[in-house]
Amino acid sequence: MTIKRLILSILTLVVVALVGSSLIGSLGQPQITNRLELYQTNLVLLATETSPPVESSDVTIDGEAVESVQNQLQQSVLGEDPLGTALENYQSVREDAQENLTDVEIRMASGSPTQYSNLIRQQENLLWQLDMQIGLLQAVQGETQPAQETWSALLTKLERREGGRAIAQTTTVLSNLWKEPPAVSDDAAAILRTNLDGWFQDEALARLYTVTDNETALTALQLNRAAIARSTLIKLALVGILPAIAAIAGSGLVIFLLVQRFTQGKEALLSLRNQAWETPWDAEIIWQVLIVGFFLMGQLIVPLLLSFLPLSLEDSTSRARAFYTLGYYLTMATAGLLVLFFSIRKFRPLPKDWFRFQVNGRGLLWGIGGYLTALPLMLGVSIVNQQIWQGQGGSNPLLQIVLEENDPVALGIFLFTAAVAAPVFEELLFRGFLLPSLTRYFPVWGAIALSALVFAIAHLSLSEVLPLAVLGSVLGVVYVRSRNLMAPMLLHSLWNSITMIGLFILGSGN
Known about the structure:
single chain, mainly alpha
């Protein structure tokens, strides 16, 4: 064994330890799926009141027509019983959160207490918040007794727990508002505005203004809610109806491609025969680029260098975090591509089709077609994946940050990172270099599958391995058939940017 291979072997062990540790650590982290469901549910709740209060004499024929259209749109987007559906969704998420808490407590009993104590606190806070909101949903639907029981049980839990003071205060105010007769404290309005958001704040304040006969404040609140509800209906259409239409179109495209594959054989669009690249380097170069250029740089070297910066992310602004994320990614990409360049420069000029990027209609069609094809596949895999992991396994931390971010500048930076920086670097490495290199040792379909698996593992979340492997496979097929890096880069950019925009929209209603 040469010195170089010995060093690569040692670095590989280091990388395996780092990546393995990150994957194992993600096992105890919750997915973002439940949070996304709640955010969409909250948008639905905001859209439940689309018409402001008006006097009967003010209603005109045109006004009635407009209201009829609004009602039809509201029913098609929100369903027949949005409040009942919202209550079911919140109760379902609560059940999942309780199961997650139980799982973490079991692991804590057999592991390090400090490793799981933060997770337990997070899950407990989530459960307290959900119980308070579930009680309010019950109360608004006239289920006053179940609501009081929910709030009473929550207050009993909070008496035995440290923290949760704000939730206890808010729960007490809510419970008093729905008692007979209602009781109102002097600071009730301030507590509700401080500790509740969106629909939950509006419903609580509406109850407060009703029991205190504050007609002026109630009317102003109703007018504001109606305006917000109309704009929210448009948001729900964007995050619900449009993706559904795209998924239906994608399903039709998948069926067409499969039928064509079986009827036209080698001439079909999905045919991968005779598509291998001429690869001038051996497995050692592939090994070197992957271990040193991607994993070692991304997991050890770049984070170590950035740790010397006089910056505390916990105390920094959202814009600083966004710039840090972009800086980290650009630094990692630059380092990785430099390793790639110096690893293969002695083989220049490269054979035909290596790293080819052309802006043309064919690349555009493959990119957009690949996105439509990926949609139904990813939706189906996500359903299976959710059953496997049951809300655990971690998620990309950037998703949660974007979901809760309100600064448009920070959001723009995060969008650039996800929609431009990530697709360019990852497609150059995984599709531009790794996939073609593997065709020297594997059939094309095997190279696609293996490169997709490495791509999925590189994101360091166990719950994302299966869906990202599917996405990576679609990216691989698109690149193999188009022979143009523009196509997978466009597909990757569309996937990331549309996901991010959906998160922006969901987060804007909470």
